[in-house]
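Sequence only, no structure available. Ideas?
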Amino acid sequence: MSNARKRSGGMGFPAWPQYGKEEVSALLEVLRSRHWGRITGKKVEEFEKSFAKAHNAKYALACANGTAALEIALRALGIGPGDEVIVPAYTFIATATAVLQVGAIPVFVDIEDATYNIDARCVEAAITSRTKAVIPVHFAGLSADMDALRKIARKYGLKLVEDCAQAHGAKWRRRRAGAIGDCGTFSFQETKNISAGEGGAIITDSKQLADLCFSYHHIGRKRGRPFYEHHYLAWNYRMTEFQAAILLAQLRRLNTQTARRERMAKYLSELLSEIDGLRAPAPADARAKERAWHLYIMRYSAKGFGGMTRDDFVERLKAKNIPAMAGYPVPLYRHPLFAKNLARECRAQIAMHKGRVNYSKLRLPVSERVCKESVWLPQYVLLGSKRDMERIATAVRKIQRSVR
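Reply:
I predicted one. Tokens follow.
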């Protein structure tokens, strides 16, 4: 890898995104070909086939970004005005705004304390006659309880859209994340475990769904039909050949990098288990066979650090060159879009639901708590060495000693 360290001498954590001769060669190949877009190029199609195979799916569609992937999937599944879609309250906002973009309403439910994933019991309690789909987010790279969610989906006739933006290569039982529900969506934004700066993908085993997704990302065109024949109200959400070229090289490294993240996460958890006031991520469910580790999330308790706030703790870690983050400051329903501005931004949806949509008083206890207690480490930290993990633990101990 040509850029594995930020600093010389091995003093920094591994740089991200990573690239090597493979990406450089592939980009030059596309550049010289003058086939830079999906219409005339071949790299996007090659990536789609490789990505589908790597994730146990029959079909994959590459698109502009992860948000577009969610919108396309929901539209292709028939989700629209008057419908409700159940989503977790602790996730990136695109999981919910994609629902709004197709004319439906997101219904927020709480997450499991140990896994940060959507709580299946809360999902079932939130189902109404308007509910048409559930979007489980495989948070931080750990698969949600797909057994429970599939059972609920079958019982109530719901669509299941897996948000795998953080779960490239994760596995539930014998299936990769994204290939278990009706479809799965992915992001290739620059922080993700596979990155092309931007980009997204949808995977599914349904040819009908894959063909509809193709039309919705390609201005309503159909495969095999005349170029200037448009069948659906759709977008131009195509991926470029440059992105696909990078992603093909990134995909080849995924298994090796995932295995390394797993080893380093386990070692870091062993080191942190000895430190009062900081809780390592809970062990994965035995059914979650592989964990993508997009984030390493610690739970912070001020009691173990002399009353220091979580945010002060994060700032002290950063001062010691540990790239820590506090994560999401509030659950999605507390953002101004949902708490104050939804009636203005989404008048048609609000009118259709006859004023019943009101997030201002919603409080989900687990989501509220983890926003105050979480400390995130990005995935590239886990591509480091055991010495790097020891540096993290040492920094935590020094901070603890300084306040005691």
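The mean pLDDT is 95.
Hope that gets you unstuck.
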